[in-house]
Amino acid sequence: MNAVSVSSPLRSLGPLRVPVAPIGLGCMGMSEFYGPSDDAESLATLARALELGVTLFDTADTYGHGANERLLGRFIAEGGAARRARMVIATKFGIVREPGRYERRIDNSPAYLRAACEASLQRLGVEAIDLYFCHRRDPAVPVEDMMGALAALVQAGKVRQVGLSEVSVDTLRRAHAVHPVAAVQSEYSLWSREPEQGMLAACAELGTRFVAYAPLGRSFLTGTTDVAALADNDFRKHNPRFAAEAVERNRQLVEALARFAEARGASSAQIALAWLLAKQPHVIPIPGTRRIRWLEQNMAAARIALDADEVAQLDALFAPEQVVGARYPEAGWVGVERG
């Protein structure tokens, strides 16, 4: 299938009803975690994304230690006000890392988030952040205090909407009581189904969008990943699901997905994204890529309609007990709330 545009109807983002395309773009891999970066290639991919109708562009201050925000800022600046008007920029605060290290600490203090917001605004070169996520939660800081500080940033015009990432349902409800939570972002895909244990229902009840990161299982669901050939600085080398004892069993699921996709005349990636769109109407997947070829393929998934029987088949194929390995190494769980 060749992509022409994201032709599905726009979806509204959270209580303030900002319209976004049904599939967004995760920009993290353009600057870190997935091998060597190529800014020229990434800038071309960002431009093609806009041509295809993508509106939601997701980054964070920790991706490349600010490099990813600067990359987006360069892209925005090169296109001027007209380009900025077509983009919904989501970024995040809360993860503090040393350069060259995956390990992190979490900071949700009001003073820190105010400083982080100013730094992100400067790197992005924008007057306001469209969607500002708490990237990970620090249990030492009451969520009410953090949300009060975020609400003040909204009042000051520096942030338009507030989001939370990898939080529990209880945290979402407590936060929403202080200020509307426009979106919750967590990992969600055929092989990461934890949000189905209450979070998706809570978001639907509150009118909160759910932004699904890693919707292609960090590319494993595409069937194109050669684990042995991953670059030394690719964090998947340390991910339990990509370990030798897990990868072969997980590959059997991917092979079954490939057969399903072939019968539908689509790619595995397109079926994995179409499953998300069909299963949960308030979900916005943000597959990440820095290559135009994969971007075009991913965006074409918005035109694939799966029926209830097909969704049920994929549900059963990727039953959680069939997936081998945790979705993060130990260091990656810092700040992730469960339940």
What does the model show?
By secondary structure, the protein is an alpha/beta fold. The protein has a single domain, classed as TIM Barrel. 38% of the residues lie in helices and 14% in strands. It is built from ten helices and twelve strands. It has helices spanning 39-51, 67-85, 110-124, 143-155, 169-178, 199-206, 244-263, 268-279, 292-299, 308-317, and strands at residues 11-13, 18-20, 25-26, 56-58, 88-93, 95-97, 104-106, 129-134, 159-165, 183-187, 209-213, 283-285. The strands form three sheets. The protein has an eight-stranded parallel sheet with strand order 3-4-5-8-9-10-11-12. A two-stranded antiparallel sheet has the order 1-2. Helix 1 links the parallel strand 3 and strand 4 (56-58). Helix 4 (143-155) packs across helix 5 (169-178), helix 5 runs parallel beside helix 6 (199-206) and helix 7 (244-263) packs across helix 8. The protein is globular. The chain starts with 10 loop residues before the first strand and ends in a 22-residue tail after the last helix. Residues 1-7 have low confidence and may be disordered.
